[in-house]
């Protein structure tokens, strides 16, 4: 598998060569297991905004999104009103798309219900971790992303199609999709080995 050589001479996933800001994002975030509900909700929200756009656009606006959506605090976003929708539509720092803005607010309300059902978003989504994932970066959906997408849609979530959900699963470490030979692949594997899936306990 082709790799991108970073400034330190180590090989990384080829997509890191697309923009300078991709390297720190790849090295410190992408593909490492996450159990924090705020981060999981944020990523699902940002993936919704990315639909039809590039991740570079969203990544460069991430701090503006965080400011606009109260740090993606689920309770705060769930309490947003139509006045907040209008405020967000006037915010030039984010993607001003009414459907996506309303979807994030809706999803915060659905997230509260999911937490009441499963204990946490993390406990729910980690049920869909792939036991035997396909070769790295060989697919844009998976049986698990299709199943998780259906489960979320059934619970009223919006902008959570299988491709969007698979990108979320890649980023949050539910699948280790770092390329073979990538400097971060072994790190992601080691972090997953020590990661305790929410709602479970090590024997």
TrEMBL record:
<feature type="binding site">
    <location>
        <position position="182"/>
    </location>
    <ligand>
        <name>Zn(2+)</name>
    </ligand>
</feature>
<protein>
    <submittedName>
        <fullName>DNA-3-methyladenine glycosylase I</fullName>
    </submittedName>
</protein>
<dbReference type="InterPro" id="IPR011257">
    <property type="entry name" value="DNA_glycosylase"/>
</dbReference>
<feature type="binding site">
    <location>
        <position position="26"/>
    </location>
    <ligand>
        <name>Zn(2+)</name>
    </ligand>
</feature>
<feature type="binding site">
    <location>
        <position position="13"/>
    </location>
    <ligand>
        <name>Zn(2+)</name>
    </ligand>
</feature>
<dbReference type="Pfam" id="PF03352">
    <property type="entry name" value="Adenine_glyco"/>
</dbReference>
<dbReference type="GO" id="GO:0006284">
    <property type="term" value="P:base-excision repair"/>
</dbReference>
<dbReference type="InterPro" id="IPR052891">
    <property type="entry name" value="DNA-3mA_glycosylase"/>
</dbReference>
<dbReference type="GO" id="GO:0008725">
    <property type="term" value="F:DNA-3-methyladenine glycosylase activity"/>
</dbReference>
<feature type="binding site">
    <location>
        <position position="178"/>
    </location>
    <ligand>
        <name>Zn(2+)</name>
    </ligand>
</feature>
<dbReference type="GO" id="GO:0046872">
    <property type="term" value="F:metal ion binding"/>
</dbReference>
<keyword id="KW-0862">Zinc</keyword>
<keyword id="KW-0479">Metal-binding</keyword>
<dbReference type="InterPro" id="IPR005019">
    <property type="entry name" value="Adenine_glyco"/>
</dbReference>
